[in-house]
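A reminder from the course coordinator: this example appears on the midterm review sheet, so study it carefully.

Given structure:
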């Protein structure tokens, strides 16, 4: 059994309309909500062994704030392919994870995060910024994960 924690990045700023999308920072609400996710993980005793993040600034900053607030001393693995990734990309990235990582936190973007939760768990879930989906995967190896793996949505937390 593997645990996947899918986190949509916290709220980002649109203060600089000419700024490239990839470089948008968190706004004040995002800076407040991201640490709450770290506290939630700590309170629920969900301890990621591995953290993946899109390379977008808002995703990287979200991951860093979650880890800091949760007291996790983990390095974030930045993955360019997770920037605006579709379901197929997400599944390929997850299939390549090391099996010793039983619990993985992955920070990304919509619509890919929502689409992945829908494909894995069935039913459409709304994932606003800083939403966290706790998904249980009935696999012993990440390489066994497919879009038809019957996963269970254990919790969906929204700020």
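Designed residues:
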């Amino acid at each position: 059994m593997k645990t996947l924690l899918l986190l949509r990045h916290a709220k980002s700023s649109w203060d600089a309309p000419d700024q490239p999308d990839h470089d948008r920072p968190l706004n004040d609400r995002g800076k407040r909500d991201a640490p709450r996710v770290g506290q939630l993980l700590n309170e629920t005793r969900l301890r990621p062994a591995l953290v993946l993040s899109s390379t977008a600034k808002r995703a990287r900053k979200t991951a860093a704030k979650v880890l800091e607030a949760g007291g996790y001393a983990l390095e974030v693995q930045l993955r360019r392919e997770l920037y605006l990734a579709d379901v197929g990309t997400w599944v390929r990235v997850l299939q390549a994870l090391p099996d010793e990582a039983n619990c993985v936190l992955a920070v990304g973007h919509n619509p890919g995060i929502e689409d992945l939760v829908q494909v894995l768990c069935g039913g459409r879930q709304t994932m606003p910024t800083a939403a966290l989906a706790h998904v249980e995967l009935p696999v012993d190896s990440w390489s066994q994960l497919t879009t038809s793996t019957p996963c269970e949505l254990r919790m969906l937390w929204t700020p």
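The mean pLDDT is 96. Residues 2-11+21-157 form a domain with the Rossmann fold fold (CATH 3.40.50.1240).
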